[in-house]
Amino acid sequence: MNDSPHSLSSSRTLWELLDRRARLTPDRPVLLQDDRTLTFGALRARAERVAAGLYGMGVRPGTVVAWQLPTRIETAVLTFALARLGAVQTPLIPFLRDREVGFALRESGAEYFAVPGTWRGFDHTGMARRLGAKGVFEAYDDLPDGDPTVLPAPPARGTDVRWIYWTSGTTSDPKGVQHTDRSLIAGGTCLAHALRPTADDVGSIAFPYAHIGGPDYTVMLLLYGFPALLVEQFALPDALAAYRARGVTIAGGSTAFYSMFLAEQRKQPGVPVVPTLRLLAGGGAPKPPELYHAVVREMGVQLTHGYGMTEVPMITMGAPDDTPENLATTEGRPPQGMEIRIVDGEVRLRGEAVCRGYLDPAQTAQAFDENGFLRTGDLGHLTDGGHLILTGRLKDVIIRKGENISAKEIEDLLHRHPAVADVAVIGLPDAERGERVCAVVEQPPGAASLTLEAVTAYLHAEGLSVHKLPEQLEVVDALPRNDTLRKVLKYKLRERFSATRAR
């Protein structure tokens, strides 16, 4: 059998991809956690036994199974067991609570619900009972078990909808995003071929496995035959011992993760925070150019950033051999087969990694244009070399006295200020201006207090147009973030500061 990652990426289903990898390199490790190691061969065998156990419970091809589980070996085993059966999976981030979970269970029509019991002080089983969920079972340490000889043939097609992911709800209900095995394999293939890992690498999954990045990353492990450290509760410096012990070479997750590693590095300049680390990689949130330069300069590792979303798990990715300018200022290039079209400044997408739409047909009709391109809501443009530069969100454009202002442009400039650890720029309702520009800043420890006058003077000196200067400054202890890739929740800032007068 051909051991080429390109050959493996032609697999029709995720189960076929695991089966082919397990036959090629059964004894190589794939999942590392605490003192446990699971090989590709053992993952396949264990997943098949769990599939048989699920089959004995009544799970069949097409059965909708929801799961709300942390980043654990057992979670990955369960997902492959469900893939073996051809069930429809609907993963839920463990931090979601009654409103979001209840909505997802109802909308997906889930017939079974796997939970971790009581996890991090919260009773998930109790919530499931409270919501009237069907087929509730705990899947933290123990998984169903059975004889694989009872199983039907594995699914042969990878183009059926077998995954329902959920966009993060803010002021409205989340949307159920429909994916196929092939769309997830396409997304993971883009990530893998961009990062160009080898069998000698050791990766890490420190974000919720229920995030769309879970299968994205797992596909990369299957294609290139290397392992990843699973981190159930990511916090630094606590997680560093595991990174060092396992010899992690590729880490990251999102912009917030880069910043956390950099903060640890700054505690002991010149002493590598993880001696084996060679690459930070991720996506999910904007990356300030200065953060790229600081990571490369102070940590001595490469940083490659990408662009993805729940609807399209991987759109573009920076490659390790891109120029520093491209790595700092762009989101990388799209892979073969991903079409990017810029329409009135908006990024639109078409390709195999794009989802099949939403559970609600009306939402699907609204999301795709007449040519079948997905409207992302992101603003950007392509360089002559094909690299994508994002300039903001359609909803993140501040309209002040009829003039459009990019929040990201101001944020990128403020990220260079030594008294700014992180920043979010938002538009707030204003009777005179329509919207006013407000900068919400998180300062590093020991920094001198910022004033609005100091901020505007700095931005003016950096060349920012006068009409874009913030009219309000708020300093907070910590910006509000979600629990997946720690993306800043701007809607919470708008709610908090909308009634605050400009100062």
Question: What's the structural blueprint in terms of helices and strands?
Answer:
Layout: H1 5-8, H2 14-24, E1 29-33, E2 36-39, H3 40-57, E3 64-67, H4 73-85, E4 88-91, H5 98-108, E5 112-115, E6 118-119, E7 122-123, H6 124-130, E8 136-138, E9 161-166, E10 176-180, H7 181-195, E11 203-205, H8 213-224, E12 228-230, H9 240-246, E13 250-253, H10 255-265, E14 279-282, H11 289-299, E15 302-309, E16 312-317, H12 324-329, E17 339-343, E18 346-350, H13 361-367, E19 374-382, E20 388-393, E21 397-400, E22 403-406, H14 407-414, E23 422-430, E24 434-442, H15 452-461, E25 472-476, H16 490-497
Parallel strand pairs: 1-12, 3-4, 3-5, 5-8, 11-12, 13-14, 14-15, 24-25
Antiparallel strand pairs: 1-2, 6-7, 9-10, 15-16, 17-18, 18-19, 19-20, 21-22, 23-24
Structural overview:
With 503 residues, the chain is α/β, with parallel strands linked by helices. Among the domains are: 5-182, Rossmann fold, CATH 3.40.50.980; 401-497, 2-Layer Sandwich (GMP Synthetase, Chain A, domain 3), CATH 3.30.300.30. Helices cover 32% and strands 24% of the residues. Strands 2-1-12-11 form a four-stranded mixed β-sheet, with helices on both faces. A four-stranded parallel β-sheet has the order 4-3-5-8, sandwiched between helices. The chain has a four-stranded mixed β-sheet with strand order 13-14-15-16. The mean pLDDT is 93. Residues 18-359 form the AMP-dependent synthetase/ligase domain. This is Cyclohexanecarboxylate-CoA ligase. One of its GO terms (molecular function) is medium-chain fatty acid-CoA ligase activity.
